[in-house]
Amino acid sequence: MLQTMRSWAKYIWIFVIAAPFIIGFLLYQTSGLGNAATVTPSTPVAKVDGQEILYTDYTQQVDNQVQQQQQQSGRSLTQDEIRQIQNSVFDQMVTQILLDREYKRRGISVTADEIREYAKYAPPAWIQQSPDLQTDGKFDMAKYQRLLTSSVARESGLLVQLEDYYRTEIPKQKLFEQLTAGVYVSDADLWRAYRDAHDSAEVTFVAWSAAPDSTDYASVTDAEVQQYYDAHHDTFTQPGQARLSVVVIPRLITASDSAAVRDHLLKLRAEIEGGAKFADVAKSESQDSASAVNGGELGMSAKGRFVDEFDKAAWALKPGQLSGPILTPFGYHLLKVNAKKGDSIDVSHILLRIQPSDSNEARIDREADSLANMAANAEEGSKLDSAAAALHLTIYKLTATENQPAMLNGAQVPSVSAWAFGGARAGDVSDLFDGDNGYYMARLDTLTPGGLRDLSAVRDQIRSIIAAQHHLDRMMDPAKAFASAAAATSLEQAAQKLNLHVERTKTSFTRGAFVPGLGGQFTAAIGAAFSLPLHAVSEPIRDETQLTVERVDRRVSADSAEWLKQKDAQKQQRISQLQQARLQMFLQAMHDHAKIDDRRKQIDAAIRRTSN
User: Fold this and answer.
1) pLDDT value at position 612?
2) Quick check: 596 pLDDT over 70?
3) Cα–Cα separations (whole angstroms), residue 143 to 131, 134, 148, 149
4) Are 440 and 468 in the same domain?
């Protein structure tokens, strides 16, 4: 069955992606949620301060985004990728509701004249990237403005798209300008930031690490644990965790498989040299579906756009010349350069992915079919065990984090994480998932919802943190005694007398550097290296993880003349950073103060139960 489906895959991939949303919605319409009444098209997937986000609107936007990414990548998306799109769409819809409310509060609106002006002189990025509006590899404003006045713009729906885009974007821009109007950066701030990046120092030091012993643990009280827990809820709030058992049927690539693909590409090259048109061969043979429909044309591109192997081979060719087989992580490519101009190149390619031979693929598919028949979508978890035993497959144990792909031996396991957090129950077995490197099936063993962890689950962790601080408290007096002795003699002599280890930084470092031995990055010990007198021995410097007594051996100050040369560019960059930071803080505050009732998990669970 899988072998038959594979032969049809390139014709049905859009339907495969769209179908889950269509089927899911139909199931949702009749499923109900828990004890709720029958769900209708007006049922909300969420409420934001009482304002509803309808399930139909949400799924339509998700479906549109999935199909766009599907068309761009030329392949089916994994459930993990779809889940990322779902979360992104949901966040965008929530944010838009909050923004619309803020626009109304501030009296922000948009006029037809503003839309026309923006459309004419400030085209969006997706317009500027259109190949039809490029001249010599750069966006051509004159071409764009001619397009706006043409019948094509009206008949294709471009004008409607632009109007919708600017009705959303112009209010955002006005709000952004209001929020960031007061952003200012002084020369003193700029010089301080420049010095942070360019002042350097070298130090010699002795450190006492926070290594608690039984005495320190015994001194930790329950009141301290509770106080720490109450003050660090963010630290102990975590996403959901799923324990999974996973069976893998790997899609192994052999040397002969790679050689067969290379030989096939050489045959295609010979056909083109014999008179066949490159574009025709690309349309029928290339497995890069996004460019194959355009005869393999990738358009005018800047140097460095492609992976190194591809880029180097393309720039080594003369216009009209064919390459030999070029191996990249995507497979074997046959390149043809159409034109070069400055730092831009117009290149076409034919891609053949390296896949198992037909006989090897058929064997893998038969084994995957057997696994699916024995255990797919089972509610009895033991079926996965018996199927794995019958097929002599290993069951791997792994932990998946909500909204992140599951990982096994450093490689992604597609779709199982999204499945586990998409309404599955402990003991459920997943469908058979097809990935680039093989087939996967999972059983959900345990599911821990995300949120604030209970104090009982983190009590030992907190006790270790507090015990470490108690240990530093006890080490403070010995460290002070050492600092006094080092100031009277030398840091090396005092350390030798007490059998303490002296360390030196291997290279010069700046204020923002990660410095091994000084506690990491932006620590008090690093900061002290730029404030202590040169060659003086410090008092004990306390950070979260250690006490440090140090001596500054060398310090080099930033060059003020070099700073002045780049000050204007630095100022613009810094202002932009502060503006973006202020905007992000505002958006985060809006979300934090809003009451958001997200019902997607309940809906997913209801759909899954109904479909089973």
Assistant:
1) 60
2) yes
3) 11, 8, 9, 10
4) no
Among 352, 372, 407, identify where a domain stops. Answer: 352
| Residue 142 in domain | no
- Which structural domain, as residue segments, surrounds residue 511? 200-236+455-556
Specify whether 74 is located in the same domain as 6. yes
Does 466 lie in the same domain as 406? no
Asked whether residue 496 falls in the same domain as residue 543, the answer is yes
For residue 566, the SS3 value is helix
8 Å CB contact between 115 and 167:
yes
Residue 288: burial class (beta carbons within 10 Å; 0-12, 13-18, 19+): buried
Query: DSSP alpha helices (H): ranges in 424-559?
Result: 455-488, 491-497, 524-528
Average pLDDT over residues 74-90: 91
Residues 6+ positions from 48 with CB-CB distance below 8 Å: 94, 97, 98, 594, 595, 596, 597
Is residue 587 in some structural domain? yes
Q: In what order do the strands lie in the sheet with 297-302?
A: 297-302, 344-352, 331-341, 326-328
CATH number at residue 335: 3.10.50.40
Sequence-ordered list of residues with C-beta below 8 angstroms from that of 591, at least 6 positions apart, any chain: 94, 95, 98
506 inside domain: yes
Residues 70 and 18 placed together within one structural domain of the fold: yes
Measured over the CA atoms of residue 440, residue 26, residue 241 and residue 376, the dihedral's sign is negative
Domain shared by 319 and 446, yes or no: no
Cα(356)–Cα(210) distance, integer angstroms:
54
Q: In sequence order, which residues have a C-beta less than 8 Å from that of residue 205 and are 6 or more positions away?
A: 491, 502, 503, 504, 517, 518, 525, 548, 549, 550, 551
Q: Rg of the Cα trace of the chain? A: 31
How many structural domains is the chain composed of?
5
Are the beta carbons of 350 and 334 closer than 8 angstroms?
yes
Domain endpoint, select from 352, 368, 397: 352
Mean pLDDT taken over the chain = 88
Residues 466 and 545 in one domain: yes
Model pTM?
Answer: 0.68
Query: Tens digits of per-residue pLDDT, 140-190?
Result: 999 999 999 898 888 888 999 999 999 999 999 999 999 999 899 999 999
* Strands (E) located in 149-240: 200-209, 237-238
**Cα–Cα distance, 298 to 345 (Å, whole number):** 10
CA-to-CA distance for 94 and 108, rounded, in angstroms? 19
What share of the chain has pLDDT > 70, as a percent? 92
242 and 365 housed in the same domain? yes
DSSP classification of residue 414: T
In three-state secondary structure terms, 447 is strand
- The answer to the question of residue 111 being in a domain is no
Both structure tokens of 192:
């301080």
Query: How many angstroms separate the first and last alpha carbons of the chain?
Result: 21
DSSP per-residue letters across 321-368: PBP--EEETTEEEEEEEEEEETTEEEEEEEEE-----HHHHHHHHHHH
For residues 334 and 434, give the distance between their C-alpha atoms in angstroms, rounded to a whole number. Answer: 28
Residue 358's pLDDT band, with cuts at 50, 70 and 90, is confident
